[in-house]
Amino acid sequence: MPSTLLLTLPGNEAAGAALAQAAGCRTAAVQLHRFPDGETRVTLPAGLLGCRVVLLCSLDRPDEKLAPLLFAADAARELGALEVGLAAPYLAYLRQDARFAPGQAISARTFCRVLARHFDFVATVDPHLHRYPSLDALFDIPAVRVPAAPAVADWIAARVERPLLIGPDSESEQWIGDVAQRLDAPFRALEKRRDGDADVTVSPLGDGDWHGRTPVLLDDILSTGSTMLAAIERLRAAGLPPPLCVAIHPVLAGEAWARLRSADTAGVVSCNTIAHPSNAIDVMPLLARALPPA
Ligand code: R5P
Q: Which atom of ligand 1 has the smallest separation from the CA of 230?
């Protein structure tokens, strides 16, 4: 059986070490050189002949990462890899899964189609599936969705007494429902309206007996932070204690991290799908299970 070699793209070193350890496979680095004109030279390590190669690249800030990733995938094959897979702890563009206004590109479809042309399989953590029911509807190669819920639930269980899981929008029900079930805790999903990149309104919490509960706000993606901040405000208005905020994918654009850190919360933590100081929950052992045997 071919051995598995994990090749880590720059910026994914910590996740790469954790993933290789959990998967029990060898790991090496992909080197990128940016030329002054903005083009990128990709260099792979030696020894790919006859291996099954898995490229590890979290796809936040995807526009700058996509070209080098595809160059690396094709080079791995040309250098003798028998199979080339992608471990993308965060998969970008899935929120653009419809033509919300005339003329818009349905980026989710194109992005996944491009990846499928260069890789033999894909594994990712909690993709933002909304209008597409599953990864199979977007990829014509094997594509595995790895839920972060077991790691998130274990982390909360070890630190929070009597949690109340709250999601900021209807899509979040899939994540909070799974985590809440594992914790045997109540949950509630709010409703969200977005009128601009950072212009978000969420519905009030509504009635319920939350006495003695510790609110935990959980969302899949923290981007501008506006959704989380609007939900924090709703919980404050409902008289709940400051919530613990948990994100699966800390994309954290612009001032989002600073804004969240100065908000009245019991802390903001994330899964290590994107390297960030908020990383507290290790999902690499879960992602490792989706990779082929070492
Ligand atoms: C979208 O529906 C996602 O689940 C997140 O709620 C969203 O991406 C968060 O974005 P932002 O942090 O910019 O409000």
A: 14
Region label for 72, one of left (φ > 0), alpha (ψ between -120 and 50) or beta (otherwise): alpha
* Closest approach atom of ligand 1 to CA 168: 6
Residues 6+ apart with CB under 8 A from 32: 9, 10, 40, 41, 42, 43, 68
pLDDT of residue 238: 93
286: left (phi over 0), alpha (psi -120 to 50) or beta: alpha
- Please identify, by atom number, the ligand 1 atom nearest to the C-alpha of residue 222: 12
List residues near ligand 1 (CB under 6 A): 95, 128, 168-169, 171-172, 200, 219-227
- CATH code at 149-272: 3.40.50.2020
CATH class of 4-147+283-290: alpha beta
Instruction: Give residue 1's pLDDT.
Output: 80
Cβ neighbourhood burial of 158 (10 Å; 0-12, 13-18, 19+): exposed
Q: How many angstroms is it from 83 CA to the middle of ligand 1?
A: 34
- What are the mean pLDDT values of the chain's consecutive 10-residue runs (294 residues total)? 94 98 97 98 97 98 98 98 98 97 98 98 96 96 98 98 96 94 97 94 91 96 97 95 98 98 98 98 98 84
Q: What is the pLDDT of residue 51?
A: 96
Extents of the domains making up the chain? 4-147+283-290, 149-272
Q: Is 192 designated active site?
A: yes
Q: Which amino acid is at 293?
A: P
| Burial class for 207, CB neighbours closer than 10 Å (0-12, 13-18, 19+) | exposed
Q: If you measure from the C-alpha of residue 260 to the centroid of ligand 1, how many angstroms do you get, rounded to a whole number?
A: 14
CATH fold match for the domains 4-147+283-290 and 149-272:
yes
How much is the pTM?
A: 0.97
